[in-house]
Write a structure and sequence with these properties.
With about 475 residues, the protein is of the alpha/beta class. It is about 40% helix and about 15% strand. The strands form 3 sheets. A 6-stranded parallel β-sheet has the order 3-2-1-4-5-6, with helices on both faces. Helix 9 packs parallel to helix 12, helix 11 runs antiparallel to helix 12 and helix 12 crosses helix 13. The chain starts with a strand and ends in a 20-residue tail after the last strand. The structure holds nicotinamide-adenine-dinucleotide and uridine-5'-diphosphate-glucuronic acid (UGA). Nicotinamide-adenine-dinucleotide binds next to helix 5.
Length: about 475
């Protein structure tokens, strides 16, 4: 039996360790966090994050071989293997502000491990980090004067929120990067053996430590780049009466391109895509690779443009003013099946519409509490309403911002009847049946599709085709 510790009980630490505990009943798994409220929630019936299938896995292992605690120092002392899954946000101050990763939580953890260790340990980078971070971690840990040896291994996490349990149960691959020394290779073996309890061996890939660190940033950059690419095509579609869904389908059938991550949207959100690309941009600049940095930065610029384009389109369609108009925003989570609103494009749309002095009603099945917290003082100017029917009552427009499947199942003729006419619907996710909505009476504006309107010029006024 090994004592496995995870520092950081967030969106990654909690679910990943629950899966490890489920598949490794012979190991003792403890997840610690300095945030006592979060730990209390992991110990309660009301888990701190909404994630399909998570509750069952946690309840199955909790208090058997899965434990949550705030006693970071004590558990460090007892651990054989320590996964570090603390937050690594974009730095907001000083050198590299706005781009570099803020490694303060990371470094603090390294020092805590150093101070509280009385035996050698394997320390696993689970957080997403700049390439060569392991070097700093090793340097700090092995600076001890007690003769303790620490091996640092990179094991980035590729789960996506909303599908985290499935992603961890059946990962496309597990990367384990280590030093090419005998003890480094032994550490890689130990970590690989943990995963081998449920992941087929051929999917557990041992790499050099820097490749592992860089692969995580590269994977997120490639995924985000696809979203920005299809959103760029969506913008052309809107000018030319092509349909982005048809274009995505057509290009996705090419096996070299493939169908995934080609859904045009109001842009990507979430705590990682933007942060990790900014981090990549910063690294490129650090190494003097300015053209490479510009290339990746464009993925973010396109994402920002997509959100502002969506809002401009709303305003111009609604006769160039939304001031005082009630607008119902359907969804505020950054994607479906999560309560997470970090970097949600819906929040940016929300802020931009407030600038235009719209009267906003926000609805979402799981993310309203997080949205309220994220919006801070602006929250006072917004109505938060869990019921979409109530949210849309008396509204001039609906903007669908999160792809919750339930939004496709609503009775839109009932919703239409209770709205101000002409009633507009802006589908930022291409989730709804646009022809049916048009038949009901809505003026329908969807990302990357020609508008379906009831006005003589079909919504092309001020948006003339060349
Ligand atoms: P999170 O903010 O949800 O959780 C991090 C937790 O670490 C917090 O609860 C915080 O209190 C705790 N923490 C910070 N410093 C600590 C310390 N010194 N001692 C104890 N606890 C401490 O973050 P997250 O979303 O779980 O992401 C963690 C890392 O995983 C990030 O590097 C992120 O880029 C990466 N990642 C995230 C996802 C995702 O879907 N969220 C997926 C893959 C990788
Ligand atoms: C993403 C990656 O998919 C994970 O592999 C990675 O581990 C994680 O980031 C991370 O490092 O944090 P996540 O952000 O949870 O996962 O969710 P995604 O499914 O990737 O969606 C990200 C954003 O892109 C969402 O806002 C989503 O709505 C948007 N998206 C995604 C689109 O607009 N179109 C698509 O076709 C796909």
């Amino acid at each position: 039996m090994a004592n496995i510790l995870c520092i950081g009980a967030g969106y990654v630490g909690g679910p990943t360790m629950a899966i490890v505990a489920k598949h490794c009943p012979h190991h003792r798994v403890v997840v610690v966090d300095s945030n006592a409220t979060r730990i209390a929630a992991w110990q309660s019936a009301d888990l701190p994050i909404y994630e399909p299938g998570l509750e069952e896995v946690v309840l199955g292992a909790r208090d058997r071989n899965l434990f949550f605690s705030t006693e970071v120092n004590r558990h460090i002392a007892e651990a054989d293997v320590i996964f570090v899954s603390v937050n690594t946000p974009t730095k907001s101050f000083g050198q590299g502000a706005g781009k570099a990763a803020d490694l303060q939580f990371w470094e603090k953890t390294a020092r805590q491990i150093l101070e509280n260790s009385t035996s050698p340990k394997i320390v696993v980078e689970k957080s997403t980090l700049p390439v060569r971070t392991a070097e700093a971690m090793e340097y700090i840990l092995n600076s001890n004067t007690r003769g303790l040896h620490f091996d640092v291994v990179s094991n980035p996490e590729f789960l996506a929120e909303g599908t985290a349990i499935r992603d961890m149960e059946q990962p496309d691959r597990v990367l384990v990067g280590g030093r090419e020394t005998p003890s480094g290779q032994k550490a890689v073996e130990v970590i690989s053996e943990i995963y081998a309890n449920w992941v087929p061996k051929e999917r557990i890939i041992a790499t050099n430590i820097w490749s592992s660190e860089l692969s995580k940033l590269a994977a997120n950059a490639f995924l985000a780049q696809r979203v920005s690419s299809i959103n760029a095509i969506a913008a052309i579609c809107e000018k030319t009466e092509a349909h982005v869904v048809e274009v995505a389908h057509a290009i996705g059938l090419d096996r070299r391109i493939g169908p995934n991550f080609l859904k045009a949207s109001i842009g990507f959100g979430g705590s990682c895509f933007q942060k990790d690309i900014l981090n990549l941009v910063y690294l490129c600049e650090y190494y003097g690779l300015y053209e490479v940095a510009n290339y990746w930065e464009q993925v973010i610029k396109m994402n920002d443009h997509q959100q502002s384009r969506f809002v401009s389109n709303m305003v111009s369609t609604m006769f160039n003013t939304v001031a005082g108009k009630r607008i119902a925003l359907f969804g505020v989570a950054f994607k479906a099946n999560t309560s997470d609103t970090r970097e949600s494009p819906a929040l940016n749309v929300c802020r931009a519409l407030l600038e235009e002095r719209a009267e906003l009603v926000l609805t979402d099945p799981h993310a309203l509490a997080n949205a309220r917290a994220d919006l801070g003082a602006l929250a006072q100017r917004i109505t938060f309403e869990p019921d979409p029917y109530v949210a849309a009552k008396g509204a001039h427009a609906i903007a669908l911002l999160t792809d919750w499947a339930d939004y496709a199942k609503l009775d839109y003729s009932q919703i239409y009847q209770n709205m101000v006419k002409p009633a507009f619907i802006f589908d930022g996710r291409n989730l709804l049946n646009h022809r049916q909505l048009h038949e009901v009476g809505f003026n329908v504006h969807a990302i990357g599709k020609p508008p379906l309107t009831h006005s003589a010029n079909n919504g092309y006024a001020g948006n003339q085709r060349f």
